[in-house]
Design goal:
alpha/beta, 23 helices, 3-stranded antiparallel sheet
Length: 548
């Protein structure tokens, strides 16, 4: 039997469920698994964890949440594939506080001397953890905690060292011929000398693929430390020949993945589309014909880009979870991953306001505050309870760009005052909701500063800047003040600024500069009329008249 009967796309394609996690839960239940139901993900801790890594974790989380909601006991595990080898030096690293450093700020030479060795055998460049692998696994664990998700992290190295993989390794090595036949259908260069095991060289510590002998009665493997080809690079072997136990090495990935399914009794595992055409088909065949375990329910998810480019820990094109949570609430980031898994998306720092607005509409739909088509409402009704920590109908969401406007002042009392005058907070809003609503302000302010966008200015609210205008400009400002006092919105104010300048024959740029100096003590700023329309009218009128 081949992998063709387990299409990893099928679980979503053949379902009419409004929420994709319900479709996956249905497929898992159809197998009548023993409890706890085990949901797994995994990654090599090769460098800085980023939001791409939580893609798999959050996809798993939603399935786990649905199953728990149906009354099942669920174990969500995530393997740190930390016995994998360090293949190349990353361009950047991060300490446990999340501070990014270049290789020049650590001992890059020491890292270079550890190429080819397992991550857990490499010293932590920062000296804070037991190993390189432990360090970057801890950073990922922190990211998951910040998202409010409980995940059990499992170290592959610990599974090997504890003997959890022993039976599987013995079985694979005892059935080498079958293992070679199965893998050769999926991978070239599998010859009669291929042995599905990598040994850790006792001399240099590298993982070597040249296995020269087996003694399964003694659980021992003999090896020769030869060169390792990693993509376009070659890591030189030291030439040492020796013997190690089966706990002092690892299975190749295409055998290790099915071995994890067996050892951890995995019922469901999502994975990126890159695995769908390669590792998954071979994994199914290895699982059934070599390891003797039924593969878990699969689900493919689409990778997403960051500002239009692929995420990459090695190149440094990443954004960490803690960085994102400085810009938006955890539930907004969780929302990004609740959407259709197979739809390609871009995570744009520049356009985070659009993502937040989308979440706000999603939430408003759940509470019946916004009309939608029936299919969309069904999705929202099913998904929303798993996105938020708690369903709170009295919650208040200040529009993100308005929160960025409030972030132009440091005065927290003033922020609340303006929000109340604009009607976002009312006398009936409970104190906890006020606090939550205004909590978005600092995040929006951080976004403005990070991107240097139109909201990255400081409103001079406390005292009026020292200004001196000619008579025409003074008259024009007074006239604009009268217009604002009539109650027009930001768009109308923006148009009126142009018309006022024309009527008084004032250079357009100079008139806008006058407004910027009044409100920001600067020669430039955000779109002035739109901005003024978001402030409390009394203050804007008084400032235009140079009264406060």
């Amino acid at each position: 039997m081949t992998a063709s009967d387990i299409d990893p796309y099928e679980v979503l394609a053949d379902s009419d469920r409004a929420f994709w996690a319900d479709a996956v839960a249905d497929a898992i239940e159809a197998r009548e698994p023993e409890e706890p139901i085990v949901i797994k993900g995994g990654v090599s801790p090769s460098g800085i964890p980023h939001i791409g890594h939580v893609n798999e974790i959050l996809r798993s989380y939603y399935v786990a949440a649905v199953l728990r909601d149906r009354g099942h006991e669920v174990r969500q595990v995530f393997t740190a594939d930390d016995r994998d080898r360090l293949r190349k030096l990353p361009r950047q690293l991060a300490d446990l506080e999340g501070n990014i450093v270049g290789l020049g700020e650590v001992d890059a030479g020491a890292l270079g001397r550890n190429l080819g060795r397992p991550y857990t055998d490499i010293p932590d460049p920062f000296g804070a953890s037991d190993s390189y692998g432990d360090h970057f696994t801890e950073l990922l664990r922190q990211s998951v905690e910040e998202l409010g998700i409980e995940v059990e992290f499992v170290s592959n190295t610990e599974l090997y060292e504890s003997g959890a993989f022993d039976d599987v390794i013995r079985h694979v090595l005892a059935n080498q011929e079958t293992a070679r036949d199965v893998l050769s259908a999926h991978q070239d260069k599998i010859d009669e000398e291929y042995v599905p095991f990598f040994a850790i060289c006792q001399s240099c510590g590298q993982l070597t693929e040249a296995i020269t002998g087996l003694d399964l009665d003694a659980d021992e493997v003999s090896y020769a430390c030869t060169d390792i080809e990693t993509g376009d690079e070659t890591i030189a072997g030291c030439g040492h020949e020796g013997t190690v136990t089966i706990r002092e090495g690892k299975l190749p990935w295409r055998f290790e993945w099915p071995a994890q399914w067996k050892v951890l009794d995995v019922d469901f595992e999502p994975f990126g589309k890159d695995h769908a055409e390669g590792s998954w088909p071979s994994g199914v065949d290895v699982a059934r014909d070599v390891v003797d375990v039924e593969p878990p329910v699969p689900m493919v998810y689409e990778w997403f880009t960051l500002d239009g480019e692929a995420l990459s820990s090695s190149s440094g094109h990443v954004v960490r979870v803690d960085e994102v949570l400085d810009l938006l609430e955890p539930e907004v980031l969780r929302y990004f991953f609740v959407k259709e898994p197979l739809k390609q998306r871009d995570f744009s720092i520049e356009s985070i306001d659009q993502l937040v607005d989308e979440f706000d509409r999603f939430e408003a739909t759940y509470f019946g505050e916004q009309g939608t088509i029936d299919s969309e409402h069904a999705f929202v009704e099913q998904a929303y309870p798993f996105v938020v920590d708690e369903i709170q109908e009295d919650r208040v969401r200040i529009p993100y760009t308005f929160a960025a406007v409030l972030g132009m002042t440091n005065d927290e009392q003033l922020r609340e005052e303006i929000a109340r005058k604009q009607g976002h907070i009312t006398d009936d809003t409970p104190a906890w909701a006020v606090e939550g609503a205004l909590g978005r302000v600092e995040r929006a302010r951080n976004w403005a500063r990070r991107t240097g966008n139109e909201f990255d200015y400081e409103l001079k609210r406390g005292e009026m800047p020292d200004v001196d205008f000619d008579d025409e400009t003074t008259a024009a400002l007074d006239e604009l003040a009268d217009f604002v006092a009539e109650g027009h919105d930001g768009e109308a104010i923006q148009s009126e600024i142009y018309e006022t300048a024309k009527r008084h024959d004032i250079d357009m740029g100079a008139f806008f500069s006058a407004g910027y100096r009044l409100f920001f003590d600067d020669d430039e700023g955000p779109q002035l009329g739109t901005f003024l329309g978001k402030l409390d009218r009394e203050f804007v009128v008084d400032r235009l008249r140079r009264e406060r």
